[in-house]
Structures are given as structure tokens and as C-alpha cells.
Amino acid sequence: MFSDKDTAHFANLETPFYYYDLNLLQKTLSTCADAAKVYNFHVHYAMKANFNNRVLEKIRATGFGADCVSGGEVNKAVEIGFEKGQIVFAGVGKSDKEINDALDQDIFCFNVESIQELEIIDELAAKKGKKTRVAIRINPNVDAHTHHNITTGLDENKFGINSWDLPLCAETLKKCANLEFIGIHFHIGSQITNLDVYKNLCVRVNEFAIWFEERGFVVKVLNVGGGLGIDYHNPDGQIPDFPAYFKIFNDFLEVRPNQEVHFELGRALVGQCSSLISKVLYVKNGKKKNFIILDAGMTELMRPALYQAYHKIENISKSAEVVVKYDVVGPICESTDCFGKEVELPETLRGDLIALRSTGAYGEVMASHYNLRENVNVAFSD
Known about the structure:
Blueprint: H1 4-10, E1 17-21, H2 22-37, E2 42-46, H3 53-62, E3 65-68, H4 71-80, E4 87-89, H5 96-105, E5 109-112, H6 115-127, E6 132-139, E7 161-162, H7 166-175, E8 179-185, H8 196-214, E9 221-223, H9 242-252, E10 260-265, H10 267-270, E11 274-285, E12 290-294, H11 303-307, E13 313-315, E14 323-329, E15 338-346, E16 353-356, E17 377-381
Helix pairs in contact: 2-3, 4-5, 5-6, 8-9
């Protein structure tokens, strides 16, 4: 991905920094939009994946909506210029202030995750003399076959309303005069690479849609979530197979006339468009381990420490003449501040530039000031 010209340019920038390839981002967004348009599917971007302003502006310009999981994300979406009628507010723990602010913004919909939340939104909407749209997030008990920490659709997870609570949910909806039920919502997990998982989801969506229809509800929206993964091992120019992804839902969802199918994609749209560029501070060669100590740490990229996540690591200052195995670590005073163990790299020296690839999702947005670290820098390629 990186040319000699790129490396020379990076040498003049203060490390560590996130480098965004906006051309790849645009190609990814356009490929997704074209694939969704075939079936008239609606895509909302999951803002939690990345809320860098320039990234968001490109996503908005593509015509996607915004899927938000906090009041701050709702406000950010409005600030960037997403249509309010395309902003959805999800999240298992919405505060009263967040709900009130979203009601004032007249967003498209709240995705509601508990019966008590239904009652609270109804109460707050009543105080404002408003009626607001809601969709019910259902926990479908579908295994996403992904990392345990990013699975969200099993009975053991905190997200959504469980199937045995749906009768009470339906009764509550009918009592809430300030709520307009518009549909059902699902999200089973993240970094899903086995598309067959979505076939199982479609079966459950069909069953729950029928369940609500049989009780007199009109299901206008089927929101099937997102979770489509990326290939962390082969990042160069890689764009997810959006046509295959959307075809699964076209083939297996039972969509009624005038019913809309909504998606909330995040990582699949932005994951490959960024790399974290870091400089080697020190090389420690030992009898059992060789360490490369970078100026980037878990404060700049949390995923390896949090999920034991894999990111491809490259020395972009030199080619592989002599290959050495290194543990690639950061400067933070934590043993978990490690990006990779036994990573095969060219013999590396102080001052070499290291690229941690596929960091466009859950990279910059999860950066912290732990150890009083400064804000991470950002650079762009147009």
C-alpha cells in the first residue's frame, strides 16, 4: 500500500498518527451504495466505528443515514449534516437527557432495548407534546461465530428484548400513546465473516415480523443491523463483498410490499481506509525475545489489548533482507500494551516507521489519554 514517496512523506510527520486513505474510503462507500441500490436497501453508518469529521463528511455525501449509540453521536450526526430523517438512536442505556435531546432533534427513530425504556421514552415525549417513532430491538439468540467480546445477539448478552418478554412488550406498546411503532431491529455481533450466519438471522427476522403482524402491528421497517467483517490479514485495497452480503438478505428475508430493509454498517465501510503509523523508539534483543518498542501504544490503538485483535504489522522503512521475529509493543506501563508477538519483520532499527494496518474502525475513536498521553495526530491522502 505504501510507496517510497509515502514513506518519505511520513518521515516528516510527527508520529504516531492515523493516516486515512480517502480514495479507498470513497471506493468502498460507492461499492456499498451501488450494491444496496440494487434492492432498494437503506444503509445507516454505525458512527461508533469512526467519527472523524472528514470520514463522516464523505459518508454523508454518499447518502447514507447515521446509526448512533449515544446522544453525542446524534448531535455529531446533525452537526455534520446527516438528514434528521435518516438518524437512528440505538443503545442499551440511553439517559433521559440523551432521549430529550434526540426528541428535540426529531430524529427518524429510537431503537428501543427494554420495556422500561419504552415507558420512559413515552413519558418524556408526552411532556414535550410529541409522538416519536420506535423500533423494538429483539435479541434473536443467533450465534454470530465471532469473538465473545463482540457478540451481541445471544440470550446471555445485555442487548435487546428477549423473546419471552415480547408479549409484555406488545402490551406496553399499545398503552404508550406517544410512541409510533414502526418496526423491529436486530444486531447479532461484529466482525462477521461467515455470511451463512445472516441466513439464520433472516429466518428469525421473518418469524418475529410475523409475530408482530399477528398481533395487529404494522411492521414498516426491518432493521437487520450490520456486523459485516473485513480481512485484517490482507488489507491492501480490500473492499468487502457487499453484493454477496446484500444478496443474502434479498434471498432469505420475506419482505412485504412497502416494507423497508435497513442496515447499520460500520467496520465494513471504514475499516481498511486507515493505518496507524508509528516510529520505533528502541529495539531490545534478548535470548528468548526481541522487542520493538513503538511510540504508539494501547492509548492510540486499543483493540489488541481489549480483544486480542490482529492487525497486520509492516516495517515500511525497509524491505525484508533479513527477517527477525519481534514482539511489537508500545510505551504504556501495562503488560497488555502489545500489538503482536513473534511478528516476522525485516531487521528493524531505531527510527524505522511501522504501519499497523486496518485501523479505520475502532482505532482513532477509542484513543485515550491514559498515562497523560497527548491526542493522536491525523493525516489524510486525497
